[in-house]
Amino acid sequence: MKKVVLAYSGGLDTSIIAKWLQDTYSCEVVTFTADIGQGEEVEPARLKAEAMGIKEIYIEDLREEFARDFVFPMFRANAIYEGEYLLGTSIARPLISKRLVEIAKEVGADAISHGATGKGNDQVRFELNAYAINSEIQIIAPWREWDLSSRESLMDYAEKHNIEVDYKKQSKKSPYSMDANLLHISYEGDLLEDPWQEAEDEMWRWTVSPENAPDKPEYIELTYEKGDITAINGSPMSPAKVMETLNQLAGAHGIGRLDIVENRFVGMKSRGCYETPAGTIMLKAHRAIESLTLDREAAHLKDELMPKYAKLIYNGFWFAPEREMMQAAIDASQENVSGVVRVKLYKGNTSVVGRKSDNSLFSEKIATFEDDGGAYNQKDAEGFIKLNALRLRLKSLQ
Amino acid sequence: MKKVVLAYSGGLDTSIIAKWLQDTYSCEVVTFTADIGQGEEVEPARLKAEAMGIKEIYIEDLREEFARDFVFPMFRANAIYEGEYLLGTSIARPLISKRLVEIAKEVGADAISHGATGKGNDQVRFELNAYAINSEIQIIAPWREWDLSSRESLMDYAEKHNIEVDYKKQSKKSPYSMDANLLHISYEGDLLEDPWQEAEDEMWRWTVSPENAPDKPEYIELTYEKGDITAINGSPMSPAKVMETLNQLAGAHGIGRLDIVENRFVGMKSRGCYETPAGTIMLKAHRAIESLTLDREAAHLKDELMPKYAKLIYNGFWFAPEREMMQAAIDASQENVSGVVRVKLYKGNTSVVGRKSDNSLFSEKIATFEDDGGAYNQKDAEGFIKLNALRLRLKSLQ
Amino acid sequence: MKKVVLAYSGGLDTSIIAKWLQDTYSCEVVTFTADIGQGEEVEPARLKAEAMGIKEIYIEDLREEFARDFVFPMFRANAIYEGEYLLGTSIARPLISKRLVEIAKEVGADAISHGATGKGNDQVRFELNAYAINSEIQIIAPWREWDLSSRESLMDYAEKHNIEVDYKKQSKKSPYSMDANLLHISYEGDLLEDPWQEAEDEMWRWTVSPENAPDKPEYIELTYEKGDITAINGSPMSPAKVMETLNQLAGAHGIGRLDIVENRFVGMKSRGCYETPAGTIMLKAHRAIESLTLDREAAHLKDELMPKYAKLIYNGFWFAPEREMMQAAIDASQENVSGVVRVKLYKGNTSVVGRKSDNSLFSEKIATFEDDGGAYNQKDAEGFIKLNALRLRLKSLQ
Amino acid sequence: MKKVVLAYSGGLDTSIIAKWLQDTYSCEVVTFTADIGQGEEVEPARLKAEAMGIKEIYIEDLREEFARDFVFPMFRANAIYEGEYLLGTSIARPLISKRLVEIAKEVGADAISHGATGKGNDQVRFELNAYAINSEIQIIAPWREWDLSSRESLMDYAEKHNIEVDYKKQSKKSPYSMDANLLHISYEGDLLEDPWQEAEDEMWRWTVSPENAPDKPEYIELTYEKGDITAINGSPMSPAKVMETLNQLAGAHGIGRLDIVENRFVGMKSRGCYETPAGTIMLKAHRAIESLTLDREAAHLKDELMPKYAKLIYNGFWFAPEREMMQAAIDASQENVSGVVRVKLYKGNTSVVGRKSDNSLFSEKIATFEDDGGAYNQKDAEGFIKLNALRLRLKSLQ
């Protein structure tokens, strides 16, 4: 091992990993730090990396790529894992993997490394996606290798190796394991390890509680083109800007909190809390614009495919051919999914109250309870029912 | 046609149908009126039927059968149609059909009749479910036969045939086409025929608006046994009582409103508004108890089957063999779905905040971020990832 | 109704229909006759049409379009209906519908007409596919309208209207209802209406019986590019030529006979016999080339989608958006499905005996039972199994 | 490790394993040898085990349990893996695992052991199924642990430890890795490792080649009750006897050979040849009896579930809850799958030529091409088509 590209947050854990890699493998370490909307400055990572003698330092703003090429395609599918989870962490990993592998090629590194533990889904996501892009890449997962199994031993290691520990930050540190990006922030561990115990109100960071949200509802209009939001309240916006704007709007109205027990790919159940402000609105609104513009059976096919699609992303198979096949089917359905959705935001509630489209398949003329002037012949229903019933009638005689 | 059993609500429309059947077919009419939790007295239907000379009058309280044998099994499947609709109307039709056909047999009738129009789903549901039980039954759907196509012509018919019209009630009548039972109340037509227009606040009947709901949240605990709720806040209750209790709790907190455009089986899109107070809580809570007690792949199989299961119920195939096959699979999964779910109700929000079970598959020992004493060997993850990656690596070389 | 385009075979039945349309609707009739490989001359239809005073006569050779745009895409999906049927009739109907509607537009006709009965699938396929292309098209299905319910009454009608009946041909006529195109010939009716009775040997037309096939096997090599056969035994061929060649080869070896009871879309079961010589080889060989070149999960996704895909084609939904979505997914998987398959033909058997590809995902180095030099680390299997087992172990304690 | 139960064939490899376990773990070894129809005597294993000082020796005839509780339920599902493979090896492993774990409990053993390598599916099947039954069981897979990586080193080990090697048998030994049971015999390795090379004719053991099969076809009748064969040519038989009889019949007619490249669960492709004589007939015949007695949508649901069901068995998840859920659905469909199927066997071909049942859903009255006396109203088809077309027509205007 000559050179390793490390997914580096600038935090204590990945700083320790950088040092540990240098020591254990006597290799050069290249750091890669990305802004994917986690809400923290990424530039400070440069100084910290330099302090450890890192020479090749990659710091990149990937927010637009993340929103456009990962989050938006996923929302075209109305993806939800296990009926609840909007896949906030899962969808960010393939992008990081992709850049790690690309940078490894650029700098001539033989391996990549990440700070995910051996119990979670993220190691799987990082590694499967990396292997899918480069069969030969080597991957170092320090948490599965080293013997630093407690926070204490980590701090000892940091001290021993002169890694700067911001003790003030450490002591104020949330007791939760967290992950954040444009789509969500997640919380695991500590009190949450008892699934009967309610999450503390101070845990949540991106949304006010519904109780503290404004007493007045707010209405917004989302413009869709081919399945993607392109404007909010009439103002055109880039994908990342759409998400940032919706995060603020939804967060202010207490929208997007979730508390679940989920099934990890590695076989265990875990409890997680999530704030997905923009995503919560995006899912509802996308379904609404589809309800008007998407053919029934196309919509139902999407619904039947969705659980598998969501599972693939959750399990780390974004760059797998079966996900790409499904995406081809999903994208083929979005050609006419354009129009405007009106949404009411109020104390945790996201309510679709109106939807319109030039491509609407809703025909008032046909659907009306009033006289339809022959647009629909009620007599047709008899034959329709009779032939749908035929097999059931034969079976009832069996 | 000698004798026809009519699904009779006691309202004006089905009274006209009763008369029309008597006149058109010169047949005896038997009325069947059921209490399935629609929230209106059913006894008044007796007097009205008698006034029309009906001799065989069936009035039945089917609330427990409806909740126990139809709603509860459906909620074991987490059924949602098109991502939103909880199937409130759909699930009531098969029970009515079943009783119509059974009564027809008891009274020696050759046909049954219902008041559903030729444009909607309900005609299909009534008829498919009836044919599935009795291949030979004849079905009269007056709305598809007669020429009374406007409200005016109906009123004329009523007047001409001395059917009592409560003009006060008619004038106060909601402009919406409505349907209600223990699970929901629905609204269609009138202003709703423009999907861009927001529903009026005075339309909603079973829930307060979130804005008018109490400012203080309420916590409830739901006890599950084998996938069904058997107690609320520790008090054992029958299925119908569970639903009535939850309807009141949820309704008071503004929970369960829905406004959607849906795809009818007969091929058109229609806009509907729904209040499903109990059902909204039941879906969330059932998923929560499953999250703790149901195996991952069993849960995912249920999620993959669900869209088709929901579609079958929506389309009127409750008594079809494929629904029964799916139910067998679903019920087989619920053996250990027992425990307690804690839910917070607040201004339209249903939030699961805790879940516990003697059958929990959540292992804190394994899931913990702290030292797990070897319960889980992180080294296993490497082999797991490597073999999951093997096909992707080979493919990346292709 | 001013002008009607009729799908015209030149046979007695559609000649009667042409006359009946002229008489019943006093409209101009345009005939459309296509060569889709049914093995009969199409030019004679011109004279017959002219004899009835038809002025606009369309006669077209659609064999290449049929093979390239309909049969080949379908075989990329390995489509089989109900585990047996290769969809020979189903896949030809959308092409005919498409041309009928296109011609109607060209000649300014308001309607199209076909000779399918009211009991079968073909009426549904003709009409759904036509409506999917042109919402406003009118469709006349004489068999559902007229009162010519017996062969006798048809002959009377012919005589009365001076439609030439080739009595010799009629008397020699097969007692079976048949349909033929490049992909298959089908037989229904007569003796076959008893599903216990074996088909007579003289019924079959395109294949010799296995008993009469050569005693020596024949080997052929099929070259695939992106999922389609492009050469046989090294000779490049067009899609239709591929099918004609395989029909001859397979037919000579007694390959492709099938005798089944199937479920029609209109609700009844029917018994059909089919000869699908080329198709039988194409299905086997396509699976074989995929077995070498297609990723496992891509292949499994295709297998999961296939029954629904086949059902859509069987039911007449070729031009429906859900079929197009599935096709997008399927086609996306075929990029690397190239190579050569070696097939042995012998007395009814199609046996794949070899397959090779430049895109092969088969790695002898990894798969070998011999020493693999570390290409695969057997230790990885332990972790793989352990984590796959984790949920099962937790469940066994439940 | 005090005591280990070993799946013991009596052959050289598992004899070496027995010795290796004794030496490596200094533990007592219990051998378990089962007759599952592999066609070899199992009693000789006793002497060999005794010679190694084994004290607890289990030798069992599991043929009936295997056929009745594993093979037959699987054939109710028409299970095929990847369109071709009848799962002969896969379905035997869970039974062996179950007995290993049960015996371990009886004799107080802490572990079980098997002779499957670290590259194949069988290790996964043995171990997942064992863990699913007993969470605490320990499993020793010598092939993943020891350093005996070549045949030579195995022979050395045998010699060094006085394990009797029947050199005559070894030298005559097939070059293929084989596995056999009532359902099939499989061949892997050696020449087959080149997927382009045709299998040698002398490899096949259970079937004559089609070329050498009788020149006269043979007809047999299979009686089904609730989805299972209960009699052949009118003679009632137990499940195992059914399979033995069909194996002989089919084998004599050259039926059941298969040569494929398949995708292993561990991520690689491998080439395998299989003889599945009875199974080949059973699959065809079961589909035929279902074609007559099973409702269309029940059949289609089974077809949609099947690929996943087959994959579960292939991957080793027989005792997983999701397989049990699917089995519940499948079994629920078989209530009326009773009747007789007539099959023609001829030189490799299995042709269904007739099927009859008291539960037949085939209605000649309805299906007939002749006058049906009004059993089916052709006019119904118009409404049926019109409403099925409605969404397509609206879409064509989009």
From TrEMBL, chains A, B, C, D:
Pathway noted in the entry: Amino-acid biosynthesis; L-arginine biosynthesis; L-arginine from L-ornithine and carbamoyl phosphate: step 2/3
Residues covered by the Arginosuccinate synthase-like N-terminal domain: 3-164
Residues involved in L-citrulline binding: Y85, S90, N121, R125, S177, S186, E262, Y274
Pfam families, A to Z: Arginosuc_syn_C, Arginosuc_synth
Binding site for ATP: A7, Y8, S9, G10, G11, L12, D13, T14, S15, A34, G115
GO biological process: argininosuccinate metabolic process; L-arginine biosynthetic process; urea cycle
The reaction(s) this protein catalyses: L-citrulline + L-aspartate + ATP = 2-(N(omega)-L-arginino)succinate + AMP + diphosphate + H(+)
Sample GO molecular function, one term: ATP binding
EC nos: 6.3.4.5
Protein's cellular compartments: Cytoplasm
Primary site of residence: cytoplasm
Keywords: Amino-acid biosynthesis, Arginine biosynthesis, ATP-binding, Cytoplasm, Ligase, Nucleotide-binding
HAMAP family per UniProt: Arg_succ_synth_type1
Subunit structure, as described in the record: Homotetramer.
PANTHER family: ARGININOSUCCINATE SYNTHASE (PTHR11587:SF2)
Protein name: Argininosuccinate synthase
Name of the encoding gene: argG
